[in-house]
Specification:
With about 220 residues, the protein is an alpha+beta fold. The protein has two domains: about 35 residues, no CATH class; about 130 residues, Sandwich (Immunoglobulin-like), CATH 2.60.40. Strands 9-2-3-8-7-10 form a six-stranded mixed beta sheet, with no helix packed on it. β4 and β5 form a beta hairpin. α1 runs antiparallel to α2. The N and C termini lie far apart (about 110 Å).
């Protein structure tokens, strides 16, 4: 806060004796400074659990928006905002995941990730992250936690409302431009009735021309 007032005094003193435009610029800078001070950037609570094939992450913040998610085989970067607070975290996984098989969704109450493990035959991960130190915002999701030996019997614990059909893939995107151009170039199939009507019109157009040709032949 002391640093804030120092910057505030510098902004005012620098522009105090200038014209109206400079003074206006001072107020803009002060406003931007206030916004910067008021906006917090923190790491959200992230809970995790696992099975042989997947890791389940839950970002425990409601009504997140402006999500930016970047998943690689070895890491996850996440940022979003809610009620003037920016939520950011980045983790390096204990082992590799498969991006194409992984999914995520903003559930409203939280943001959820289903990360597909690359090695689905290996033992359970001993921890979520590669580094041995603990991150304060990472917690075990005890509502989904099971021992590895109990997966056959309790594998669905805590996952009743995790409908994967409501999740989106990380590699989802729009159609390729080449595909769109190909669709535009393809001729549209006409309706049979429309084709018949068109042929009838052509016949009617040709009939007067044939009659005129016959009259010209008789006169000759």
């Amino acid at each position: 806060m002391i640093q804030y007032y120092k910057q505030l005094r510098i902004v005012i003193s620098r522009n105090f004796n200038r014209n109206y435009q400079s003074l206006k610029q001072s107020f803009i800078e002060i406003k931007q400074l206030n916004i910067k001070v008021m906006q917090k950037t923190i790491s959200p609570i992230v809970k995790w659990a696992q099975r042989k094939d997947n890791v389940f992450l839950t970002v425990e913040v409601r009504d997140l928006k402006d999500e930016k998610v970047e998943l690689t085989t070895s890491s996850l970067k996440f940022s979003a905002s809610a009620e003037g607070v920016n939520y950011v975290f980045e983790i390096n996984f204990f082992a590799d995941v498969v991006v194409e098989e992984s999914k995520w969704t903003n559930y409203g109450l939280n943001v959820r990730f289903i990360l597909s493990k690359k090695d689905k035959t290996a033992s359970y991960w001993t921890r979520l992250i590669k580094e041995p130190h603990k991150l304060q915002y990472l917690q075990v999701d005890w509502t989904k936690y099971i021992d590895e030996d109990d997966e056959a019997e309790e594998g669905g614990k805590g996952l009743d409302d995790w409908d994967q059909n409501k999740f989106q893939n990380f590699d989802q995107g729009g159609a390729d431009e080449d595909d769109e151009e190909a669709e535009e170039e393809q001729p549209k199939e006409g309706n049979v009735d429309d084709l018949e009507n068109e042929e009838e019109v052509q016949k009617n157009d040709q009939a007067p021309q044939e009659g005129e040709q016959e009259k010209q032949a008789e006169s000759n």
